[in-house]
Amino acid sequence: MTLSLPLPHLADQYLLEPDVVYLNHGSFGAVPRPVFESYQHWQKELEANPVIFLGSRLPDLLAHARERLGAFINAAPDDLTFVPNVTYALNIVTRSLDLRAGEVVLTTDHEYGAINRAWRFSCRKSGAELVSQQIAVPVTDPAAVVEQIWSGVDERTKVIALSHITSPSALILPVAEICRRARNAGIITVVDGAHAPGHLELDMQEIGADFYGGNCHKWLSSARGAGFLYARPERQDLLEPLVVGHGWDREVPGDSLFQDYFTSVGTIDPAAYLSVPAAIEFQVQNDWPQVRHACHQLLQESEQRILEISGLPPVSPSSMWAQMRLVLLPGKIDAYQRLWEEDRIIVPVGQYGGQPGVRISIQAYNSPDDLDVLVGALKRGAASS
User: According to the model, what pLDDT value does residue 241 have?
Assistant: First the structure.
């Protein structure tokens, strides 16, 4: 079966090994050549004069990068701060909120392990309770997901914490509706948007989360080590610095304590942060809405081929996923755990509710041939299971 992407030339823009079937963009991303060159440019600029670069130039450079990112996700630049990743971003939030015994942090059973641990850590210290609301799979309707999550809310609920796109199951959750309801109920919302920037059209005002952490180095494809924390202005005074540095208790405070606290954290290599405008520009120049659509179509057609092999239902309607998809598989997981050794395929295989499954990511560098290799390997695995 032959499928086609409308922009196959973009594969040449990435640095991946050509003999590897790379279907795991969701884990660590992949950096296009122009973005990698921008990253190296900023590293060289730093090395040419570290004192002037870090001591004088960097604040304006970071402000420009925040402006570009803010315009991309409809957020005021001063409501954003760069961080290395979402785990770091949401640790700022989990360690800052004044949780107390008897209060509840409501989350779901589809959350990322590191973020779950961050909440568990803070709840254990404070005496608050972490409650994981089940979202049953297959999911048939986003509205039903809202009701499943909201059914866990009661008078003790202080925080609702959930993913925009879930890591294990690749579901796009209806976060805007949850945030709207939560604001009306006086509940704080914290969204893990690790997979969202560059994967979805983002609008921080429309989503309405109190706190939103995003990675730029996944689907936006900046250099690795670039994430952000967004905080609504009226919630910023709840946050404390995760690392206390020169920005805390300044002799002359800046215009924003949020920026003081989280921009001055000691000596870092800021090149990944400064590569974010180049990543945004790469997507603008290459008509990324069209790329996303083409990737979604390729994945949708490939999922259908796999479901014909398995006889299993899809885990959700197509409106609840974009370029990353969990597809359940028949038999036992052991039958699918040699994809790398036998076929040079990099793709996560795991257990989901007792059923084997594969989480497939499709990015602009993938080809129909990549999916042919995967489908063939899964067909052999199903036959041997």
Answer: 93
